[in-house]
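From: lab user (bench 3)
To: helpdesk
Subject: output format question, protein + dinuclear copper ion

Hello, I'm new to running complex predictions and I'm not sure whether the block I got back is the full result or only part of it. Here's what I submitted:
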Amino acid sequence: MLKKRLFCYVTFFFSVLFISACRAVSISPSRMPSALNPQGPGAARLAELWWVMLALGTLTYVLVLVLLFAAIRRRQRGTSATEPDSTGGDTGRPWVIWGGIVLPLVVIGIVFGHSIYTLATVDNQTENSAFKIEIFGRRWWWEVRYLDHGFSTANEIHIPVGVPVEIQLQSADVIHSFWVPELHGKMDLVPTRINKITIQADKAGVYRGECAEFCGLQHAHMGFMVVAESEADFNSWVSAQQQPAAAPTDEAAVAGQQVFFSAGCVYCHTVRGLDDKSVDRSAVDLGPDLTHLSSRLTIASGSLTQNRGNLAGWISDSQHIKPGNLMPNIYLNSQDLQNLLAYLETLR
Ligand code: CUA
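Helpdesk reply: Thanks, we reran it on our side. This is the complete output you should expect:
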């Protein structure tokens, strides 16, 4: 009877663990990132700390279970711990000292020491970084400014493999949190403050990042990509991004550029090289820089793969895809929409 009940408790405990296993909301084309699959030195230190904490937690848990079983068996045999000791001594005291004071002190001491060491090694790298990137968290996308290279992009960060890069984090509205699980731990973006971290990827690849601080309705759709590539690929990406947008030559794209003006896109989105004196450039910062939109992997902050169909859906009904975002639905006839898409496709 007792064994059966114990079996039920143990099964219940483990089933709760499985039910509660959470999964990040993601509709990205990239695979699901895991902090336990570190691909950079920062994430490696944090994964190490995670395993140490898991090992200590498991040891403590097993020890408590063993003592619990021992106590139950002792009780079954007829000796009760609650009965006073016939010699008048206090048999419970060693348990209180070793189990209630010494063991917790040792476990918490190891976790505390290891956490401080991890924090110190993870955060003290900004002086080694090759260059700086400034990132502004906005509801709900990421503005990415390459300070040393002189251009801006959105929701996509390119870095060379094996090189530490300093990220300066700021917020334009509310608190966000920058997190690339496979490369580094979380760092908040706090209004009026600049927080810094260093990221580094040891292997080439595309690493998905997320906003890790609840920031409103579309918090779950505030993703981004970190593309780690060879030095040569990175340099050619940088020189392509530094170029202003080429003037469209195709008939549809030329007409599409006019739609870009007439539909009002130009009032919120910068396209470098687009010369329109009627637009106050200093006020153009509501939406992502679109100069090289078609070179990006995703649109809508990592929510959709970047392709013509998704772009058409986003322009026509972005409020259905990300309700509450600042981009209004743009009502265009099908010819204007196709022309606008043809123009956006030239922004490579
Ligand atoms: Cu930004 Cu959550």
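A quick orientation on your result: The helical segments are 2-20, 41-76, 93-123, 231-242, 251-262, 308-321, 334-345. Let us know if anything else is unclear.
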